[in-house]
Every structure is written in structure tokens, then in C-alpha cells.
Design a protein that fits this description.
heterodimer; A: about 270 residues; alpha+beta; B: about 575 residues; Bactericidal permeability-increasing protein, domain 1; two-stranded antiparallel ribbon; 18 helices; about 15% strand; elongated
Chain lengths: ~270, ~575
């Protein structure tokens, strides 16, 4: 473990869970939800008492792919600017030359890339509530409350964090074998280990264990029933989340935080934080 | 109660009002139903740009309506609807599948109490007149009492108690509801006391039909408008997309012209015919576990699993410092997992490049099978001072791509890749029927052959970010370039032969299969030497022949020699 996280202190800070909840709720109210979802908020958030393990494995120069991506982008914007009569394809040397003409990022001494192993198998838990709304015949005519409790999050992955030309790249590279998590998987797998290998090889799953417990419906004046632990719904949500992460942040996809500020802003000092 | 109803809409009577309006409309729709159907017909006809005689339709339907016995003299008017207690809707079971055919299904219990419904209309009491009106002219005797006698009638349903278990299916197109176990009870009160028992009896009889047929279809039709927001526009968009699809299909349909036929290589045709004919035998050679197939360079379906298990993945990744020659890929775990061994981390034996290339390869292979994501998503989040603005675009792609749209590849191999993909998928589907015939274009045929046998990465799918440097290193390898000529364009036969031979020579003697050798994580693969397909020029046609290899077998497949006997 390269990073020492003082989790005890976090855990004992009783205000922390509350502030995190408030911050998240503030964010959730600010975003635009689809019309059939209403009242999305975090009801409870608990950090858990086990810290994540973060281990720094390598510090190297950034891989070429990041430079390629930046250059390609610069090229595109340059092409958009100089877009005129010429509109034929991307092939050939001509475009490359033009790219060099405009702007190209080369590896510099300040660029750095970290290969970090992240491991978490703690008891963080989040409770989210939302309402599915039927806007017919009048607005918010009928609502179905849903409560999700997410816990038992476990992952053990290698991530790539690179910083170059004022941009931060983050990508999950691959999963790492983990005795506890692997065992979890086989239990969760309904088809058993022999039948499960039907589909194509999964590149990465990032979140290896996750339990979602659902509550659909709400009692009203002590009347009616609440549907609990809807297995299919839980499975569905899990798959969606995994797919989303795999699509968005798993190599060769990545997230790119751009800290570059164009100079036409009032401030011309380049801040890097 | 699981579902929460908005109490306000019940308190301020708005719900009752809307329901009253809807009911009035619905009850009167029966009268104008025929006209409506006509409207729909003519509308559909107009859309289909076939001019149909609407007049004829109208007149015929009016006749049909006239010939029915209709005692209603005026529209049905719903006077009052009242739900003093809020209905109760409980969810009993829920099943989410996420498939477009059936997104979700659930079992619900509906109950409502004390509801009140009052309708008013006028009826014709002179039933003799009704008969006279519809009977043909030649009937006798002539009626003298042919005055109308209109009586207003009010029917009140009070104390409606409904309890029902319903199955609800949510689909992409709408909501389907079926009512099971309906128990309905109400007090019926009619302003004409004489008719009350009779009407009550008939009503109770027809209730079954209402819950079995009328309500579900009405609800389904209604729900269609929720799902498509505004029905008309969505209709057109689906039409549009369909048109688009058919246009695309038309675009990629292969047309074989005489010129193309000249390009067909006899060598390839021979090989393809061998391949098809070998399928017609019952040879069991290929089931031997050691070999992938009896035909070199091709993979038999029963060995597919064996083959895929040797694909590069992190579980059989041996670390960077291994000696390439010693590295024998072993069959990886059966659990279909791609995990980096922890020991490799502990020993700090990490070859970042190898991991990256393996992950990229697996990603690309996923594309070829799923066909959904073409380019990796690389979102850019611009961070300014305090506030974040999320630029919702996939990297450097043009800004007109919105977040939900599939990302198109922008790398230089774009054109080649996408077109080859589509061609491959299209021809693969038609392969079964046309396998024996030689009418389609050879290049596409052969590429579809390989892909139908093994869903490996699309061959033109160059690893996206390999670029200039690789090109230079490759130029030094003139032999590979020789064979590249074959892949990039179809030249005369002589060239093909030459490339065949040269590609044969470039094979390592221990690499039994060309494709297999590309897939396997040999040292060659891991080292930065690019694969052949990473520098195919984008706009050229190319083909991949899965049979370009023959080393240790007796029946060598050079052009000068005879083809192997059919197995």
C-alpha cells in the first residue's frame, strides 16, 4: 500500500457523512432528470470502516495513445477552422502535414503517468430514493417510490492516470485477481462456472461485487404492501452500471479532464488544479 | 398502497373532470367509429400515395350503419364522475428484463370504492319506427305510427366497487394490461324503472367483455401516446429510420458486374469450393483436439471454443520479461474472465504495453460481434476555475454527435473499417444460401468467410492509435509489403500468386495458422511491430484470405499444384 489513508479519522468525523450526503443531494437537484423520474436523492450515505487500498505501481512516461488523441483533436479543430473546399477523408500524408503545420503535442519532460492499483472491498453503503412518475392524465398523477440500497462494493483494478499538456487522463486498465472477489463472483453467477463462459470474453468488469437491495412501493397509512428484493431489477441495474463503466472509463476508453484555460478569459494565469 | 396518487388532482376535481370528458368522448366514439375508420383508411392510403376512392368507402359505411338498429337519439353524455376515495394501486410482483420487446412486467392489484358514474342520453321509444326505417321499401304493411317518441334516460352507477388483479406489460410501444380476477359490484339506478332490471342484467353480462377486451385495448392505445410523446412525429421517425435502413442495405448490396468477375481470383474460388465441399462430408478429422481444422487456415465450429480459449487475455499473459519463444499460451480458465494475476503485480512484472494491447484487442473483438460501439468513448471534461462544464462529446469527434449517438470512428481507418464491417455482416447472413455459387464478389466473400468462421477482430480494424512510426518500421520489411499489395488491391493473377508465396514465406514455421498467430500473445504480437492490417490504406478495398498458409502439410497449396483431394 503506497498511500496511507487515515480512514479512522474520516470515519470518526460524524459530520462527513452528512456533508457528503448534502453535497450529493445538491448536485442531484441541480441536474435535469427525465420526466418520469422525480425526487431523486441520497437518503443515507456511510463511508464504512475499511479504507481502500491504493498502491502506486509504476511511474513512467505517458503512453503514445494519449498524445495521439490530443493531436487528433487538435487536427480536427484545425481542420474545422480551415474547412473550405477540401473535404475528402482523413487518409494520406497531406492531413498529417497540415496537422504539424497547425499544432502538435510532443512528449515533454513534465508529462507523467502513474499506474495505480486500487483495491476496495469495504462496507460503504448508499441509499438512494426516487419516484417513477406517471404524468397522465395530469402532471405527477401517480408515483411509484423506489428505494435502492447499494452496498458491498468491491473492486480491484489497475488504473492509468496520465498528466500531459494540462490534461488529465484517467482510465481503468484491467482487473486484478483477488481471492475474495473472485469467490464472490462464482456465488453470484447463476449459471455456475461451466455455463457462464458462453458469451464473449469480458474485457473488464471494474466493479466486481455489488449488492443492490430494492424496495418498490410504499406503505400508505399502514395499508398496502412493499415489494422487496426484486432480483431481476437488481440484476438489471447491476448490468447497466457495469456496462456503463466499461463503456465510459475502461481502456481503450478514458475520461479526459482538461485543465487548459483559453487565454481569451479575463485571467491569463494558467492554473493547474 | 404502493403507488402514490397525487391527492390534489382528486381534491380539486380535475381528475374527475378529465375522466368525464374522456368517457364522453369514448362513449360517443362508437357512433363516429365508422367515419373515423374511413378517415384512417384514407389517411393511410394517402400516405401510401395510392389514390383510393374515399367516397365509395364513406357511402358504404353509412349504409352499413343505417342498417343497424340504433335506439339512441342523441349523444351519450356523462354527467358525473366521482371518486370520493382515492383508488388503490398496489404492486405485487415486478420483473425487469430490459429487452425492447418487454421492458418490464408486473402484477398489480387495483381497487377502488364508492365511485359514482352517471350518464344521460335520449332513446327512441317507438321501436316500430326503428324497424320501418331500416326495412326495405317493398315490405308491407305500411306503418301509420311513424312519429318519433324520444325519451330521455339517466343511468346512475353508484357504489362502484372494483377489485382486480392485473398483469401489466411495459413494452417499447406501449403498456399492455390484462385483467384477471375482476370483482365488480355496483348499484344501478335507471330513470325508467320499467327497463332497469333488463338493462342491469345485460350490463352485468357485458362486463366480462369490457374487462377482457375493451379496457385493455383502450389503455394500450392511450399508452402509445405516452411512450412516443407525440404520436405522429414518432411515427414518421420510425418510418424514416426504416427507410434509412433499407437504403443502407441497398447501398451495400453487392452487385457483380463483368468487370468484377474478371477480378475474381481462380485461386480463391478453388479454395472456397474446397471449403464448401468439405462441409458436405462427414469427416471427423477436425474433431481431434490438437488441430483446429482439416482445412489449413480455417477453423471448424466444433473447435471454436478451443480456439477462443487461446486468445490473448490477461490470465495467460506471462508478463513482459518472458522469453518470447518459450512462451506457450496455455488454455486459460473456463470462467471466461480476464484478470491480471496478482502475483504479476507483486513481482512488479508489469508490461504495460502488453496489457494495453490485450485490452484493446478484446475491445475490438467485442465490436465485431456486437456491432454497437465502434469507437471507444473518450469524454472530455473541461475544468474551469470553479464550475465544470461537461463537454459531452467523444473526444475529437465533431460536435454534432450527441451523447447518446453511437460514436463513429474518426481514426484514419474509418472508411475501410466501417464499410468492411457492414459488408461482412451483410454477406455473412447471406452466406448460407449462396455459399456454393460463385456470383458474388470474391473479395467480400472471402472476408465474410473468415469472419463467419471465427468472429475475430475485423481485419481492417487497425489498432487505432498506431501511426507514422509503425509505417516506417514496416517499410523496411519488404516482404510484408509485398503481401500487402495483395491486401490493398486486387491486381492481376500473377501478383496474387506472388503474394501468396511471399506470405507463405513470412510465416514462422511453428505458426500453424495465420489468424491464430495474430491472436496469440506471442512475443511478436506484444512487441510494437504492428499487425498487417494496421496500415492498410483506408479507402482501398481489401480482402483477407483465411487460407494463405500451408507449411507442414503434405498437400501443399501452391498455384502450380493440384488442389488437395476433398476430404
Amino acid at each position: 500500500m503506497s498511500f496511507d489513508i487515515n480512514w479512522e479519522q474520516l470515519r470518526n468525523d460524524s459530520n462527513l457523512n452528512r456533508t457528503v450526503t448534502e453535497k450529493l443531494n445538491g448536485y442531484l437537484t441541480s441536474i435535469n432528470l427525465p420526466s418520469y423520474v422525480n425526487n431523486l436523492r441520497i437518503e443515507r450515505f456511510s463511508m464504512g470502516d475499511r479504507p481502500p487500498k491504493v498502491t502506486l505501481r509504476q511511474i513512467t512516461d505517458p503512453v503514445q495513445d494519449f498524445y495521439d488523441a490530443i493531436n487528433e483533436e487538435l487536427q480536427m479543430s484545425a481542420e474545422e477552422e480551415t474547412e473550405g473546399s477540401d473535404d475528402e477523408g482523413y487518409g494520406g500524408d497531406r492531413v498529417r502535414n497540415r496537422g504539424i503545420d497547425t499544432q502538435t503535442v510532443f512528449p515533454s519532460a513534465n508529462d507523467v503517468q502513474f499506474l495505480v492499483e486500487m483495491e476496495y472491498n469495504g462496507n460503504m453503503s448508499i441509499t438512494v430514493t426516487a419516484e417513477m412518475v406517471l404524468n397522465y392524465p395530469s402532471k405527477k398523477f401517480m408515483a411509484l417510490p423506489i428505494r435502492l440500497t447499494i452496498s458491498n462494493i468491491g473492486f480491484h483494478t489497475l488504473c492509468l492516470i496520465a498528466f500531459l499538456s494540462k490534461q488529465l487522463f484517467f482510465s481503468f486498465l484491467c482487473d486484478v485477481t483477488d481471492p475474495i472477489l473472485d469467490e464472490d463472483d462464482s456465488i453470484l453467477d447463476q449459471n455456475g462456472p461451466l455455463l457462464s463462459s458462453k458469451g464473449p470474453l469480458e474485457r473488464i468488469s471494474i466493479i466486481r461485487s455489488l449488492s443492490i437491495s430494492t424496495e418498490v412501493g410504499e406503505e400508505y397509512q399502514g395499508d398496502g404492501s412493499v415489494l422487496k428484493s426484486v432480483g431481476k431489477l437488481e440484476q438489471f441495474l447491476k448490468e447497466k452500471l457495469k456496462d456503463f463503466l466499461r463503456k465510459e472509463v475502461a481502456w481503450p476508453s478514458w475520461i479526459n479532464f482538461d485543465f487548459y484555460e483559453p487565454e481569451d478569459n479575463e485571467s491569463d494565469d494558467n492554473q493547474i488544479n | 398502497m404502493s403507488f402514490k396518487f397525487n391527492e390534489e388532482s382528486f381534491l380539486d376535481n380535475s381528475f374527475n373532470e378529465t375522466l368525464r370528458e374522456k368517457l364522453t368522448k369514448m362513449l360517443n366514439s362508437r357512433k363516429s367509429m365508422d367515419i373515423k375508420i374511413d378517415d384512417h383508411l384514407s389517411y393511410a392510403n394517402n400516405r401510401g400515395s395510392t389514390s383510393c376512392s374515399n367516397n365509395f368507402d364513406n357511402s358504404s359505411s353509412i349504409k352499413a350503419r343505417d342498417s343497424k338498429l340504433d335506439i339512441l337519439k342523441s349523444d351519450v353524455k356523462v354527467c358525473e364522475v366521482n371518486f370520493p376515495t382515492i383508488p388503490n394501486l398496489e404492486i405485487l410482483d415486478l420483473d425487469v428484463s430490459g429487452q425492447p420487446r418487454a421492458l418490464a412486467k408486473g402484477i398489480c392489484k387495483i381497487s377502488c370504492r364508492d365511485a359514482l358514474l352517471q350518464i344521460q342520453t335520449e332513446i327512441e321509444a317507438n321501436s316500430l319506427l326503428l324497424y320501418t326505417n331500416i326495412s326495405p321499401d317493398f315490405t308491407t304493411p305500411l306503418m301509420i305510427a311513424n312519429d318519433t317518441f324520444t325519451i330521455p334516460i339517466t343511468m346512475t352507477f353508484s357504489q362502484i366497487q372494483l377489485e382486480a388483479i392485473t398483469n401489466v406489460f411495459v413494452k417499447n410501444s406501449g403498456v399492455g394490461i390484462s385483467f384477471n380476477d375482476v370483482s365488480l359490484d355496483f348499484q344501478f339506478d335507471c330513470s325508467i324503472k320499467l327497463l332497469q332490471p333488463h338493462i342491469a342484467k345485460r350490463l352485468r353480462k357485458s362486463m366480462q367483455l369490457v374487462f377482457k377486451d375493451v379496457l385493455p385495448s383502450a389503455l394500450f392505445n392511450m399508452s402509445r401516446s405516452w411512450f412516443t410523446h407525440d404520436g405522429s412525429s414518432s411515427q414518421t421517425t420510425t418510418d424514416h429510420s426504416q427507410e434509412e435502413g433499407s437504403r443502407l442495405i441497398r447501398l451495400h448490396r453487392l452487385t457483380v458486374e463483368d468487370l468484377d468477375l474478371q477480378d475474381l481470383s481462380p485461386v480463391n474460388m478453388l479454395k472456397l469450393s474446397t471449403l464448401t465441399s468439405s462441409r458436405q462430408t462427414l469427416s471427423l478429422h477436425s474433431t481431434m483436439p490438437k488441430y483446429f481444422s482439416t482445412i489449413p487456415g480455417c477453423l471448424d465450429r466444433q473447435n471454436f471454443r478451443n480456439f477462443t480459449s487461446r486468445m490473448p487475455c490477461l490470465s495467460n499473459y506471462g508478463g513482459g520479461s518472458d522469453d518470447g519463444d518459450k512462451h506457450v499460451p496455455h488454455i486459460h480458465n473456463l470462467q471466461n474472465k480476464n484478470l491480471l494475476p496478482e502475483e504479476a503485480l507483486e513481482e512488479n512484472d508489469i508490461d504495460l504495453k502488453a496489457i494495453l494491447s490485450i485490452q484493446t484487442k478484446i475491445y475490438e473483438r467485442g465490436i465485431s460481434t456486437n456491432n454497437d460501439v465502434i469507437r471507444p468513448r473518450r469524454r472530455k471534461i473541461r475544468i474551469k476555475r470553479a464550475k465544470k462544464s461537461i463537454v459531452n462529446k467523444a473526444t475529437e469527434t465533431s460536435s454534432n454527435l450527441n451523447a447518446d449517438s453511437e460514436i463513429t470512428p474518426v481514426s484514419s481507418s474509418h472508411n475501410a473499417t466501417s464499410s468492411v464491417n457492414t459488408i461482412t455482416s451483410l454477406t455473412t447472413s447471406s452466406l448460407g444460401s449462396t455459399a456454393g455459387s460463385s456470383n458474388s464478389k470474391n473479395t467480400n466473400r472471402s472476408s465474410s468467410f473468415t469472419s463467419s468462421i471465427m468472429p475475430i477482430t475485423p481485419l481492417a480494424q487497425s489498432s487505432m492509435n498506431k501511426k507514422d512510426g509503425n509505417l516506417i518500421t514496416l517499410r523496411q520489411d519488404s516482404k510484408v509489403l509485398d503481401s500487402m499489395k495483395y491486401f490493398t488491391k486486387i491486381q492481376d493473377l500473377h501478383n496474387i500468386h506472388a503474394s501468396f508465396n511471399s506470405s507463405r514465406e513470412t510465416q514462422d514455421s511453428n505458426n500453424r495458422f495465420r489468424i491464430a498467430s495474430e491472436m496469440l500473445p506471442t512475443k511478436r504480437e506484444i512487441s510494437p511491430i504492428p499487425t498487417l492490417n494496421s496500415f492498410i490504406e483506408p479507402n482501398r478495398r481489401f480482402s483477407f484470405v483465411g487460407l494463405n498458409h500451408k507449411t507442414s502439410h503434405d498437400n501443399s497449396w501452391s498455384v502450380d499444384e493440384q488442389p488437395p483431394p476433398y476430404y
